[in-house]
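Complex record, two chains
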Amino acid sequence: MHISEGVLSPSLLAAGGVLTFVGTAIGLKKLDYDRVMNASLLTATFFVASLIHVPLGPGSIHLIMGGLMGILLGWISFPVILVALFLQMVFFQYGGLIVLGVNTTIMALPAVICFYLFRPWFMQEGKKRQIAAFSCGFFSVLLSSLLMALALFSTDRGFFQASLLIIAAQIPLMFIEGIITMFTVTFLAKVQPEFLQIREL
Amino acid sequence: MKSSFLIKFILPILLVCLYCPFSQAHKIRIFAWEEDGIIKTETQFSGGRVAKNAAITVNNGNNKELLSGTTDDQGIFNFTIPQAAKENRFDLNIVVNSGDGHKSSWHLSAADYLQGKDLPPPQKTTNERNSPVCVVDKEQLTRIIQSTLEKQLAPVKRSLAKLQDKKPSIQDILGGLGYIIGLAGITAYFKSKNINS
């Protein structure tokens, strides 16, 4: 999900930069003292998750954990993903500085959308929370791949085939993320319910 | 009840996923080296999977396209050094674009691929034809040594090119986590000031 430097058009890069700036500003405003630890734990999760490759078919995939981040943090996903992507860029040379805005938007915007769509169900006990968690994992990957495909397609119409392939490639990940988000949330609800911050917000 | 639901519902999905022919990668990488007047390029995704049918463009130093092509099933694309590049001693910039948002380039300087290529063409000397004892002059000797060295060094060049790509090491990962902890500390510090004041 990391777009390389020099692929996208300047206007798109600028749009991504502005969206990331606004999102990060809102996120930092919402980040209060009690949630600093949650946010940094999820930053670390995101930073490391993309290094663990699960072999799948001829290639491999890695987790993004955008859904989990979205449902737990909402707008705070923006600063969290920005920091994690920046560190990945510095340490592992994934993506690049100029495309940082677009890459952040591609992963953080779906997380925020999932937060608003599924948070009400998430607040309730039992099955509804599980469904909300699964949907969050599923739709965050789906929306991310749609955004990425759109970004590539709007830069170069010739990327249409590749764009479709990107969405198709993410389908297994959508289910896997959904399932893992669901199990993580169920586990956290049992063991560490404070982490879910169900009462507040 | 719950576990049987999981087995019935989730297991098939996971099995379908296992056969999915697609995958994703973090980045693409390309290495290029010169061998016998041919520039060889090898393209891979991070994780070692070869990049088939990736578009390759060769530019000179001023970003003017010299030639282009696509990689084969092994992710390899070879081309003879363009005459214009030889004459003007262009530094080559070889760019690969896999079309799914991954792009990378390899810089091959003129000094690297033209090493020893600027010697005058071999001349048949009288010694070679007439005398039973083979006399090799300095120029010929240089040429022989160069071609042998080139052959011997080709695999070394290739693995050196491969080494340029670093995999994330444990130090990188721990370093990144350290930064995250530090940032969390700084944020917590400032946010706690707000609470106190």
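Note: Chain B touches chain A through 45 residues (CB under 8 Å).
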